[in-house]
Recover the amino acids of this structure.
């Protein structure tokens, strides 16, 4: 059984649901419409007790390249911070508080906001060719969508800052060594293994599993929301800088940025 969407794929089979980002032509870059569709699918999971586990993945050769820089909320004078909090944060929160266990299957590059999104599930399985890249400083911006909270919490301050400042990619095997990834499997085995783990969890006491996650995250989640908003507020200031305008322009024009430090 499946629901029809434009920017995601959503199907259920037995006790497991699969949700796939589905803009492969744009490396599954995130849009407001996509986040709304993900939220709708997650609402469906919440309302259907037959679903007892969720696999979150993506179509094509990459997991997610981050936010689509050309995509903006509709309406003149829209407050960008509030728009992102009301859409992106709402959806990230729904993943992190989902009624059922969430297995994230990263099938390729996870960059920028896509890196953050990959960290919101409960168990992360990556294909051997998956890569994780912060990418923000390459375009003169700061990490957002929860990056400055989630990543240091998982791999420590020093390594997180290194990835954020240098934009060096983190391989799936390195991520496994750091404890960020739970499993690293051959590309062709990724979905098979993710569905296997999901089926295993679906047979378990999912109410207890949900309560366990809630206790682990309870204190941190309020801090996560605060940090998510703070990132967006700082980002709004940084976007007006010369370097940010140069960085974004260079990215869109596919040339090397020339930063000046202001």
């Amino acid at each position: 059984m499946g629901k029809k969407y434009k920017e995601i794929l959503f199907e259920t089979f037995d006790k497991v649901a699969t949700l796939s980002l589905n803009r492969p032509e744009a490396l599954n870059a995130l849009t407001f419409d996509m986040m709304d569709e993900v939220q709708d699918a997650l609402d469906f999971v919440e309302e259907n007790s037959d679903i007892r586990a969720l696999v979150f993945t993506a179509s094509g050769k990459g997991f997610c390249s981050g936010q689509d820089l050309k995509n903006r909320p509709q309406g003149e004078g829209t407050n960008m911070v509030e728009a992102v909090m009301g859409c992106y944060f709402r959806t990230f929160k729904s993943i992190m508080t989902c009624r059922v266990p969430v297995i994230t299957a990263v099938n390729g590059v996870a960059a920028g906001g896509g890196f953050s999104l990959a960290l919101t599930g409960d168990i992360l399985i990556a294909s051997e060719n998956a890569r994780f890249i912060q990418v923000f400083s390459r375009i003169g911006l700061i990490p957002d969508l929860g990056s400055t909270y989630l990543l240091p919490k998982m791999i420590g301050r020093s390594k997180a800052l290194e990835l954020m400042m240098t934009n060096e990619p983190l391989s799936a095997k390195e991520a496994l060594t750091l404890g960020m990834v739970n499993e690293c499997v051959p590309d062709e085995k990724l979905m098979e293994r993710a569905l296997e783990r999901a089926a295993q969890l679906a047979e378990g006491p999912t109410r207890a599993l949900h309560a366990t996650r809630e206790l682990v995250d309870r204190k941190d989640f309020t801090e996560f929301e605060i940090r998510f908003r703070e990132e967006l507020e700082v980002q709004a200031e940084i976007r007006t800088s010369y370097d940010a305008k140069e960085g974004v322009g260079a990215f869109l024009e596919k040339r090397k940025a020339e930063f000046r430090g202001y």
Summary: The mean pLDDT is 94. The chain has one domain: 2-187.
